[in-house]
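Key idea: predict the complex, not the pieces.
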Amino acid sequence: MTLPLLPVLPILQLIPGAEDDSAVTVPTEIVLLLLVLGLIIVMWDLFDRRSKSARKETGLDEKTEVLSVRGGSTLPGKEYYSEELALVSKPDALIKEEGMVIPVDVKPMTDKVRDRHVVAMLLHLKLMEEITGERPPYGILLMGQKRRQVKIKNTEEKQRWLDSLIDEMRSICDGVPAVPAPSVYKCKHCDVRAICTHKAEDK
Ligand code: SF4
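Result:
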């Protein structure tokens, strides 16, 4: 507890006779007040370091206010779960922009936005609105090593698309046969193409 006592020293020198050991009498209230101030400074510094460290983990810039980081060592991650919808989502991070909580997903391995990235983001947005009652206007994808920012707008049309995918997924769970939609390019590079009965091939 050395640091909280540091602000006490200059003030002691201002007190008449403080240099003389035998004459130093500081009221207990002042000492306690200075200790509390020191503690606040230490806590503030700790919080600031945690925020900076969390930003570093996501690749977000200095000005971004980070609220949570999934699996982060500094700020705890956040999970959104709706029992009613039987859906769960875990954004990679949550940030605050213009008073709104915004979900962020980090995709360091690719610079290209795929449907699966958008669907996961729309699910975060859907559950955040369902649980908090506030509709985030967009989510952010950080793509590739350079963390290129892509905003995914939370529109009615996109949410309808998500709903249709969820309905399809539920009907498959209920026994409706899944219809594969393979792509020639993906199948060409797939590890199990030799044994897959659904693979697409060049005609
Ligand atoms: S080969 Fe089969 S498993 Fe692999 S991508 Fe194509 S359809 Fe999917």
